[in-house]
Design a protein that fits this description.
Layout lengths: L3 E6 L2 E6 L4 H10 L1 H8 L8 H12 L10 E6 H12 L7 E2 L1 H4 L6 E12 L6 E11 L2 E12 L2 E3 L4 E4 L8 E5 L2 H14 L2 H4 L4 H18 L1 H7 L10 E4 L5 E9 L5 E8 L18 E7 H13 L6 E2 L11 E7 L6 E7 L5 E7 L1 E6 L2 E6 L3 E7 L9 H17 L2 E4 L2 E3 L1 E8 L3 E8 L19
Antiparallel strand pairs: 1-2, 2-21, 3-13, 3-14, 4-5, 5-6, 6-7, 7-10, 8-9, 9-11, 11-22, 12-13, 14-25, 15-16, 16-17, 17-18, 18-21, 19-20, 22-23, 24-25
Length: about 450
């Protein structure tokens, strides 16, 4: 037999279960709220209806707004690199003549191959792109060129996407990479092309000078050859496109980070009344996980916005039934630990009451379904007369910010070099000040979510 008893403490009245099942404990906790109400009913007796109405009006009039990120979307650049390699690998140009060698009587040609496209950190507001181009004599590699650009991602507010477009005029340099080994390969290539009567005339030093001239020519004037013969059409579709989370966005900022796993981070500022945004994140990101991170206040205000739109009931009867004319109003908030998630209840008619409940959501994920419970529900503030009925619907209200956050994350999509990336929820973590949702790609090999994430493969 499991029992639930209210326990008084300096922090408030806590509901404790002596049962073995956490899920059953939470269910009983909510079903037996009447016991706790009876225990704490005298705490706020005598509070005036005017005071409770002022508290309610002040909450509904809140307008504080921080420019710190309300949410961030973090994309590991190595993941994007792998996807680009899958989409663009194998491009090669036709065989092209090298004019500087033609003037020396050597009728040689080269083939350019697209060996890789890499995203790299750049100045704030930009994303670095490096295009690795191989220079080959047929299939034999000679040396490599690097074409680099700093690209500013752009946001399409109508389509709700951020795009990285790579155009030829973005490319700012061609840097030949010619180490001693590569230089010797070019010298050997030139020697093989010399007529027999000249082979003994040119020593390696002389051919080295000619090799340097050929490489310099390719670096200085070979860009149009690469652009027109290898990169043609690369600017016809975005190199990277990110479908933004379904948030009421006021601004989107782009930053990149270096380190072991470089990232592109989208800092999202919403129109919601969020007064405390996200602090800098010092976690080391996983190379295969896209992460949406919501400030706790953002998650709560998403639920409040859904209540305001009528998607979640806002008023309830004394029996806890949704009713447009019910005397009790409910809203969500987020505060400091312990028990960061708050449920606010007001009744400003009849037996006026204000209650604030605090709790910590306990999240589990299985078969792509998110389940939320509350492990430490506490009545933190009670003002006015006690309620005689249990409010079982508070369980749903505690779960709404988490479920809405996950729903927002499900809308994130990536398109790399014209190919869509299928993302799936891999983990959910509710912290003291934020909510993290990890997304992994179904169609590429990626590591699991970082430890601490709650997921089907990483139980908490």
């Amino acid at each position: 037999m499991r029992t639930v008893t209210p326990r008084r403490s300096r922090r408030g009245t806590r509901l404790q279960s002596t049962g073995r099942s956490a899920g059953a404990r939470v269910g009983l906790l909510l079903a037996w709220l009447v016991a706790a109400w009876t225990a704490v009913g005298a705490v706020g007796c005598g509070t005036s209806c005017e005071e409770i109405a002022r508290r309610r009006d002040a909450f509904f009039a809140r307008s504080a707004h921080t420019d710190a990120p309300h949410a961030t979307l973090t994309l590991p650049l190595p993941l994007a690199d792998r996807l680009v390699a899958d989409r663009l690998g194998g491009r090669a140009s036709d065989r092209l003549g090298v004019d500087v060698l033609e003037k020396a009587g050597l009728h040689l040609g080269v083939v350019f191959t697209l060996d890789g496209v890499h995203f790299v950190p750049a100045a704030d507001g930009h994303l670095g792109v490096e295009v690795e181009v191989g220079v080959r004599d047929g299939k034999e590699p000679l040396f490599a060129l690097t074409l680099a650009a700093d690209v500013r991602p752009v946001v399409d507010p109508v389509a709700r996407v951020a795009r990285v477009m790579l155009r030829p005029d973005h490319l700012r340099r061609i840097a030949p990479r010619l180490d001693p080994e590569g230089r010797q390969r070019v010298v050997t290539w030139l020697r093989r092309a010399l007529p027999a009567v000249l082979a003994d005339v040119f020593d390696d030093r002389g051919l080295g000078i000619l090799a340097d001239a050929a490489v310099t020519w390719l670096g200085d004037t070979g860009f149009p050859l690469v652009r027109d013969n290898l990169l043609d059409g690369l600017d016809e579709s975005p190199l990277l496109e990110v479908a933004l989370p379904e948030l009421p966005l006021a601004a989107v900022r782009f930053t990149t980070t270096g380190g072991r796993t470089p990232t592109l981070q989208l800092e999202l500022v919403t129109t919601l009344p969020v007064s405390e945004g996200l602090a800098p994140d010092h976690r080391t990101p996983s190379a295969g996980v896209v992460e949406l991170r919501l400030a706790g206040e953002t998650a709560a205000e998403l639920a409040n916005a859904a209540i305001a739109r009528g998607e979640i009931p806002s008023r309830y009867t004394r029996d806890g039934e949704p009713s447009p004319d019910g005397p009790f109003e409910a809203r969500l908030g987020w505060g400091r630990t312990p028990r960061p998630l708050k449920v606010h209840l007001w009744c400003v008619t009849g037996e006026c009451t204000y209650v604030r409940l605090g709790g910590t959501p306990l999240v589990s994920l299985g078969d792509d379904e998110v389940r939320v419970a509350v492990r430490d529900g506490v009545f933190e503030i009670v003002k006015g007369d006690a309620i005689s009925e249990a409010f079982a619907w508070t369980k749903t209200l505690f779960a709404d910010p988490v479920r809405l956050g996950v729903s927002v994350a499900r809308r994130v999509r990536l398109d790399v070099a014209g190919g869509g990336l299928e993302l799936a929820i891999a983990g959910v973590d509710v912290g003291d000040a934020d909510l993290r949702v990890a997304l992994t790609a179904r169609n590429v090999d990626t590591p699991r979510a970082e430890p601490g994430m709650v997921g089907a493969l990483t139980p908490r």
